[in-house]
């Protein structure tokens, strides 16, 4: 068993499709970057809320193709011939107008170059899951395959060479130190899931009793190495992370965190994953 990186994904626009990449740069925030930062862009409604799958299932019908080197995004409406392209730097107003017409209410597209728009702002590092875990979850649901389940859970990093739920080793009663290649991370907690994973990522159609099945099977298949104290419920999968911080020099008897020394390092397919 040799834990290693089997797949890397970034999501240039939050809630839209992934881009598979061979390597990424780690930013100071813990976000991953390959030309564009993970969740660098997000769609907001007039109340300042994310226009995402939680609030607007219509977003599931938007297919996207990103051309990272040119900042071009191509949008296609599922099962139609409607296809439009925008430059994320030059055509932002036109993109906002097109999306506003699609959703039926005004939206704005904003960016955060340094940290993106992570779901967990306390642990904004990459989300991690194993390919075997996704395969196992797919087996719980007749009609779903690995790729369909992968699209529902939207993790950044997939670990290969391990059994299902191996990633549960990356958290405990306390945080867990681990490395990917030479990049030092902290595993924080199992990720709490939302309504989005119950829906088909391309149609928005809900799978009957998805959450009930998931909670039952997750409880039944919890490995012996999983710290059960971290589960106030079993609707959790994948691991939230952050970069390991270095400590600044003591001042007035206190030691405070300083910017991580991990910024600018590279993670690539095949890198080994090691628990300290």
UniProtKB/TrEMBL annotation:
InterPro entries: MoCF_Sase_C, MOCOS_middle, Pyrv_Knase-like_insert_dom_sf. GO terms for molecular function: catalytic activity; molybdenum ion binding; pyridoxal phosphate binding. Residues 92-276 form the MOSC domain. It comes from the Bacteria. This is MOSC domain-containing protein. It comes from Merismopedia glauca CCAP 1448/3.
